[in-house]
Specification:
Layout (H helix, E strand, L loop, with lengths): L1 E2 L5 E4 H11 L7 H39 L7 H10 L19 H4 L5 E5 L3 H8 L3 E3 H6 L18 H18 L12 E5 L2 E5 L5 E2 L7 E7 L2 E9 L2 E7 L13 E7 L3 E5 L9 H16 L4 E5 L2 E5 L5 E5 L4 E4 L4 E5 L6 E7 L4 E3 H17 L15 E5 L4 H19 L6 E6 L3 H5 L1 H7 L4 E5 L2 H11 L9 H4 L3 H16 L7 E4 L8 H7 L2 H4 L4 E4 L2 H13 L2 H8 L7 H4 L13 H25 L4 E4 L5 E4 L1 H16 L5 H18 L17 H11 L10 H16 L1
Parallel strand pairs: 3-12, 3-24, 12-17, 17-20, 20-21, 21-22, 22-23, 23-24
Antiparallel strand pairs: 1-2, 2-18, 4-11, 5-6, 6-7, 8-9, 8-15, 9-10, 10-11, 13-14, 15-16, 18-19, 25-26
Helix pairs in contact: 1-8, 2-10, 8-9, 9-10, 10-12, 13-22, 21-22, 21-23, 21-24, 21-25, 22-24, 24-25
Bound molecules: acetyl coenzyme *A (ACO), ligand LL5AMS7Z and magnesium ion.
Ligand LL5AMS7Z binds next to helix 13.
Subunit structure: Monomer.
Keywords: Acyltransferase, Cytoplasm, Glyoxylate bypass, Magnesium, Metal-binding, Oxidation, Transferase, Tricarboxylic acid cycle
Subcellular location: Cytoplasm
Length: about 725
């Protein structure tokens, strides 16, 4: 239902009420002026948004044409590069410069640590994420495969003491490695005390030792001779030794350590984009309301867990006494960033007088910033405050090249004017996840140089765009092999090289992508240290537990120090980035290889899509063919669907084969969801399953989807399900 709120546009009634009744009253904005300004902004910027989408389409057609014309020829990188320049895909990168962003919070500028991402539509998860600034190391070790689940170490229904001991051993090894004592080991400490301004570790034989690096001791709670917490600091991150000799763990620990709390998710992205299914006004208002609750600090969620009802709220800041007796106040919550949607979609919230829907990205920018401005009105001593430096952080996904970045910056400038905010209050995080942004990254950063707060290699979308952009160039390698090719390493290094050259350290994050195997934490511990080692001062994790574990990596690597030396290395090459990860002309795959690849992709597609379409769940853990639970979101769906579309296009598989695999996999996915509440099976009547139809469309119409995006089809089919439910 819509209502003509203003002369020239139609505003959805529920949305209009939400803004007028729940959001605007907390601001000093005049509602009439606000709506008029909003309408004007939409009128002015919608055509620009559209023309940018038209440019995407034009360039894609030219690239398709180029590859079709050169089918079967040896790929000529120089010729291709020249062609990309001629059509305006590859732009002049211009002179050197450094960014000028000001008023960024320490979490962005000076603290290197994990970045958590969470679907905003799920308040239970969103609250958990906001609170994930601090996480229990003991829980993270005990609850994951970081401690192998073998022999006597398997976790059971009851506490497994052997596993508990292994946890404590590993945690104290970490203390010895990162916070070594001048003499002796944390394993043998019988008490920690504070003497004058120093931490002293006491041993059973009466000897004592200070820290090897005394300045790592930051503060305490409780009495100096019997502290209840010891606060330590390394590489800008804190940890707390929680001491309680009566605690469940502490009573058995020589030093009375009951837990080790790690500063974990330093920043968190509240995601309105690829991890949510928000297709209409109802969904969007729910998401905006959650963001409002987080900004106000009063969001809460009550749910059943472990047989009891739990109430979850935002944590308050943490207080300690410093070495000089001063009060130390540490942030109790992650610094929240907000990922808006990109330029592609529209929705029913706002339409012009002809009924043409406004771009969702424009509405997101206005509403999420209108909400976030309430944070800027808070005082220093407010218990739940997000930015202490007066900034709003918007992550902008899926931008293609510098013109789109310039557009987003212009949009933010207009939003600042509309809301009466100082210039450059709204910071932008650029997702480097479309090929045209990667190859023009320096020019993109220049467009945002006054408000840039991060660049991040979203390698999942980037892989999807790699396939779609070069759909006509030939058959792509199997998915696993694509990740091993030269283009991706060059893309990752290029991002860091350019970030460093543009002076991001100290002003903006250089970030890396998601760990997409949420249960494989041992593997994450081995490999994700490569992110800080590559010079990234943040990288994405899928859960609070992963944040706590990944935080260990930033204790081991001093990223800011490393970034200095990386400035001297030889730079990644554009030619490598432009090397398309195709199968060689003479390469063949066996029937089994093709089937296995299809099965894996299709299982992921169906497993994700069925929950998206039927249940409105935007991010799921879906087992792959080897039973490894994978985080699936719209970006991973984009890869899988584009990959099959590419193989269909180049005859590696055919329609009938894909249909057959789909039916087989539907039965498996149904089985996997046997206990999922309200689940509608697909395999028994696939033609009646809207979710199955959606999956089919994503594959068979994949080639024609704009940039290979999945949103248009997902929204279409989800809206059908919602419509049916109303009938
Ligand atoms: C390409 C990209 O764009 S990546 C960015 C988008 N992706 C994301 O945002 C991933 C976010 N992660 C998630 O949504 C989830 O972790 C999933 C879907 C991958 C797995 O979810 P589940 O299967 O429910 O996880 P699991 O059962 O292992 O754990 C659930 C618990 O972990 C918590 N949890 C899991 N993920 C998160 C998260 N991202 N933030 C906060 N809490 C989380 C839940 O709150 C829950 O704890 P609770 O019972 O105390 O509330
Ligand atoms: O948004 C992240 C990605 O990898 O895509
Ligand atoms: Mg992405």
């Amino acid at each position: 239902m819509t209502m003509p709120a203003q002369q020239n546009s139609q505003i959805h009634q529920g949305f209009y009420r939400f803004i007028n009744e729940e959001v605007l009253p907390a601001t000093e904005l005049n509602p009439v002026t606000f709506w008029q300004g909003f309408e004007q902004l939409v009128d002015d910027l919608s055509p620009v948004n559209q023309s940018l989408l038209d440019t995407r389409e034009r360039l894609q057609q030219q690239i398709d044409h180029y590859h079709n014309q050169h089918q079967g020829e040896r790929f000529d990188t120089a010729h291709y590069q020249k062609f990309l320049q001629d059509i305006g895909y590859l732009r002049d990168q211009g002179d050197d410069f450094t960014i000028e962003t000001s008023n960024v919070d320490d979490e962005i500028a000076t603290i290197a640590g994990p970045q958590l991402v969470v679907p905003i539509a799920n308040e239970r998860f969103a609250l958990n994420a906001a609170n994930a600034r601090w996480g229990s190391l003991y829980d993270a070790f005990y609850g994951t495969d970081v401690i192998p689940r073998v022999n006597g170490l398997k976790p059971g229904k009851r506490f497994n003491e052997a596993r508990g001991n292994a946890v404590i051993k590993q945690a104290k090894d970490f203390l010895d490695r990162v916070f070594p004592l001048e003499q002796g080991s944390h394993h043998n400490v019988s008490a920690y005390v504070v003497y004058y301004k120093h931490l002293l570790a006491c041993f059973p034989d009466g000897s004592q030792s200070g820290l090897h690096t005394p300045c790592q001791f930051a503060g305490l709670t409780g009495h100096k001779e019997e502290p209840t917490a010891i606060l330590l600091q390394n590489n800008g991150l804190h940890i707390e030794l929680t001491i309680n000799r009566k605690g469940a763990i502490g009573q058995h620990d020589l030093a009375g350590i009951n837990d080790i709390l790690m500063e974990s998710a330093v920043t968190t992205i509240m995601d309105f984009e690829d991890s949510v299914a928000t297709v209409d006004a109802e969904d969007k208002i729910h998401a905006y309301r959650n963001w409002l609750g987080l900004i106000r600090g009063d969001l809460h969620a009550s749910f059943q867990k472990g047989g009891s009802t739990q109430l979850r709220q935002m944590h308050k800041d943490r207080f300690y006494t410093g070495k000089n007796g001063e009060e130390i106040r540490l942030h109790g919550r992650s610094l929240l960033l907000c990922r808006n949607v990109g330029l592609l979609m529209t929705n029913e919230l706002v339409a012009n007088k002809h009924g043409l829907q406004a771009p969702e990205g424009i509405v997101d920018a206005v509403v999420t910033c209108l909400i976030a401005m309430q944070d800027l009105q808070k005082q220093d001593n407010d218990s739940i405050r997000n930015s202490r430096s007066g900034s709003i952080y918007i992550v902008k996904p899926k931008m293609h090249g510098p013109d789109e970045v310039a557009f987003s910056c212009n949009l933010f400038e207009r939003v600042e004017q509309l809301l009466g905010l100082p210039e450059n209050t709204i910071k932008i995080g650029i997702m480097d996840e479309e090929r045209r942004t990667t190859v023009n990254l320096k020019a993109c950063i220049r467009e945002a140089k006054q408000r840039l707060c991060f660049i991040n290699t979203g390698f999942l979308d980037r892989t999807g765009d790699e396939i779609h952009t070069s759909m006509q160039a030939g058959a792509f390698l199997p998915k696993g092999a694509i990740k091993e090719q030269v283009w991706i390493k060059a893309y990752e290094n290029w991002n860091v090289d350019i970030g460093l050259a543009c002076g991001l350290p100290g002003k903006a994050q250089i970030g890396k992508g998601m760990w997409a195997m949420p249960d494989e934490m041992a593997q994450m511990m081995k490999t994700k240290i490569d992110h800080p080692r590559a010079g990234a001062n943040t990288a994405w994790v899928p859960s609070p537990t992963a944040a706590t574990l990944h935080a260990l990596h930033y204790h081991d690597v001093d990223v800011f120090d490393l970034q200095q030396s990386l400035q001297q290395r030889s730079k990644a090459k554009l030619a490598d980035i432009l090397t398309i990860p195709l199968m060689a002309a003479d390469q063949t795959l066996s029937h089994e290889d093709v089937e296995r690849e299809l099965e894996n992709n299709i299982q992921g597609i169906l497993g994700y899509v069925v929950r998206w379409i039927d249940l409105g769940i935007g991010c799921s853990k879906v087992p792959d063919i080897n039973h490894v639970g994978l985080m699936e979101d719209r970006a991973t769906l984009r890869i899988s669907s584009q990959h099959i579309a590419n193989w269909l296009e180049h005859g590696i598989c055919n329609d009938a084969q894909v249909q057959k695999v789909m039916l087989r996999m539907a039965a498996i996915v149904d089985e996997q969801n046997a206990t999922t509440e309200n689940y509608q099976p697909m395999a028994t009547a696939p033609d009646k399953s809207i979710a199955f139809q959606a999956a089919r469309a994503l594959i068979f119409e994949g080639k024609h989807q704009p940039s290979g995006y999945t949103e248009p089809l997902l929204h279409h089919y989800r809206l059908l399900v919602k419509q049916q439910a109303r009938q």
